[in-house]
Specification:
mainly alpha, 608 residues, two-stranded antiparallel ribbon, single chain, 2 strands, 30 helices
Length: 608
């Protein structure tokens, strides 16, 4: 009652666990003890026992059938700890659900819990508005329930469970978050395998991450670790060194029988032969790679030839970067071919080769290629994959163009490896001063540690003059639904990628003349979508605010965008306090800190 739950039960539970292990009288005493707790204390007592018990068997001995007798305990165990809270560890979930599964009178609560968990898991509103951590918690609870239930119990409720599974799978696969999608795939696989074991298996392709491996391990029930003071005597079943040696001796004859007795292993051994080093061997290619960009276009648009097709894809990027003037003549045509290109035969790294070539042509001739790509983004008859490819290419080309450091073609020689240099006979040679300076440099001892590398040369931001061609066309038609494309409707995955791409383009436009206009347009765009239900879209909007604050000069922000900043600050404060997603709250706080830093930088009063 006074909040000393952990301290009291930390001392009481171990003693009760030891005494109830083999004494039924103590078990009845413990059951009577918890049954006599007043209702207003019951939640704290039950939660403390569930968290402190080392396993479901121990919890069953301590509580008995309390969940059947008390409505309060039933609500806490089947509702509050599973659906309203999600900060408890996985071990507590296993203890709680294992407790419900251990007794015949408690098992109906287990199937009831599974139905309610699947109903919550299949709610589109819950998927959109609840944190990923809570969805993972519910997914773990579902998998643990499935591991405890028998096939006959699941078969009697198959239709209802299957309906909830299909709805939940659709909601999770529609999510923009890869973590949510992978979670939905695994839970759907697990439910399908248990509900319809005789039917075709539901299999998805996803990466094996730590969370996925943990969820898969929960499908298999593991024997609970018995406390030291409860460990039963191993008796004759214990493994001793003698039994291990005996078992290994029995295995040796069986292993030797697998070998052919007629073969002399010593004469037939190849251990003395030294293998050839083939690590640097390369496969000989019969097809010669094209030497001109126009030849590449003809091969990619002509009849199918797997060898020529592969050779062209491997050299296209290098040809574009090596022959910039020739690439500019056919830049839009190359971009069009690559955007519609399909993999006619297997080519290793085809997606990366295609993307690299598109980025190279966009960086080589940015204005016409950017105009083509941005116009095609809102055109008809494009797949969502192609539209997202356009956004990726624009972002990567902007990054390449914005690089302000050029690579040095020459560096100072290393004094430790400098060779003797001879002056040319012609003293009027313009290089003689350089040779003398390098010789003096190599023979000079310095006692202070300084920079031994040449400083890189800086160049202007090449993205600045063309940033508007990348940025503004993407903002024009986002609210106009097409027959095959609706950003504000079902295609919120592409909307999220669009918002993140705009944030990237804004970030790379730092210190450019068009940054202020881009920032104003981006803040208006953010304001129009600030209440979007999808978490991924909201994260992109908050990243766009941060990019604007970092890229637009502080003076321009406070002079030209004062009204937008005031509105944005109020929205950020609301997001930081009320948004259900932790990443959104973190991004909002980051933007608020950037605003405060700008205010301190210019010595101005706080925004009000």
């Amino acid at each position: 009652m006074h909040g000393r739950q952990k301290e009291i039960l930390k001392a009481v539970v171990p003693h009760l666990t030891e005494r109830t292990h083999s004494d039924c009288i103590w078990q009845r005493i413990c059951w009577r003890l918890v049954e006599s707790v007043p209702d207003r204390w019951m939640e704290a007592v039950v939660c403390g026992f569930v968290q402190a018990a080392p396993g479901s068997a121990v919890l069953s001995r301590l509580l008995g059938n309390l969940v059947v007798k008390s409505k309060k305990v039933q609500f806490v165990m089947t509702q509050k700890l599973l659906l309203l809270q999600y900060s408890h560890p996985t071990a507590m979930l296993q203890t709680l659900l294992g407790y419900l599964a251990l007794d015949r009178t408690r098992r109906p609560f287990l199937i009831k819990v599974l139905k309610e968990l699947l109903e919550t898991w299949g709610s589109s509103s819950a998927v959109k508005h609840s944190p990923v951590e809570q969805q993972l918690y519910i997914g773990k609870a579902i998998v643990i329930c499935l591991s405890h239930l028998e096939d006959a119990e699941l078969a009697s409720h198959r239709e209802e469970l299957l309906t909830n599974m299909m709805e939940g799978m659709k909601c999770h696969l529609d999510s923009n978050s890869p973590r949510v999608r992978h979670l939905g795939m695994l839970v759907a696989e697990s439910v399908s395998a248990r509900i319809t074991p005789e039917g075709p298996a539901l299999i998805f392709q996803y990466e094996e991450e730590d969370e996925i491996r943990e969820l898969k391990s929960l499908l298999i029930q593991k024997p609970e670790e018995t406390p030291v003071h409860e460990a039963p005597s191993m008796g004759k079943s214990a493994l001793t060194p003698d039994t291990v040696l005996k078992s290994s001796a029995k295995l040796q004859p069986a292993a030797s029988e697998e070998l052919d007795p007629g073969v002399d292993s010593e004469l037939d051994s190849d251990d003395d032969l030294i293998p050839y080093d083939m690590s640097e061997d390369k496969e000989l290619k019969k097809t010669k790679a094209p030497a001109y960009i126009r030849d590449c276009i003809e091969i990619l648009t002509g009849p199918e030839d797997a060898d020529k097709y592969e050779a062209t894809m491997n050299v296209l990027e290098s040809l574009i970067r090596r022959n910039a003037s020739a690439a500019r003549e056919v830049s839009v045509e190359v971009a069009k071919v690559l955007l519609h290109l399909e993999e006619k035969s297997y080519i290793e790294g085809f997606v990366m080769l295609r993307q690299s070539a598109l980025v190279a042509i966009a960086a080589t001739d940015p204005v016409p290629v950017a105009q083509y790509l941005t116009s095609e983004f809102y055109s008809l008859n494009y797949s969502l994959r192609q539209r997202m490819d356009i956004l990726d290419v624009l972002a990567m080309a902007a990054q390449e163009l914005s690089q302000s450091v050029t690579s040095m073609t020459k560096q100072l020689p290393n004094p430790k490896h400098s060779s003797i240099q001879i002056l040319s006979g012609n003293s009027s040679s313009p290089d003689w001063r350089k040779v003398v300076d390098e010789r003096i440099q190599s023979k000079t001892r310095r006692f202070a540690k300084g920079s031994t590398r040449a400083q890189p040369a800086f160049a202007p931001n090449k993205f600045g003059p063309v940033a508007g061609h990348f940025f503004f066309p993407l903002l024009q038609n986002f609210d106009r639904p097409l027959s095959t494309f609706d950003l504000l409707g079902d295609d919120h995955l592409v909307l999220g990628r669009l918002v993140h791409t705009l944030a990237i383009l804004m970030y790379f436009a730092v210190h450019t003349a068009v940054a202020t206009s881009m920032g104003k347009a981006l803040l208006e765009f953010v304001w129009a979508l600030r209440f979007h239900a999808d978490t991924y879209v909201r994260q992109g909007l908050l990243s766009s605010v941060s990019s604007t604050l970092l890229s637009v000069p502080a003076e321009r922000l406070l002079e030209d965008l004062t009204e937008e900043l005031l509105e944005t600050q109020a929205w950020l404060a609301d997001v930081a306090e009320k948004d259900p997603d932790g990443e959104c709250r973190s991004l909002a706080l980051q933007s608020l800190l950037l605003m405060e830093n700008l205010k301190k930088q210019l010595g101005m009063a706080p925004f009000s």
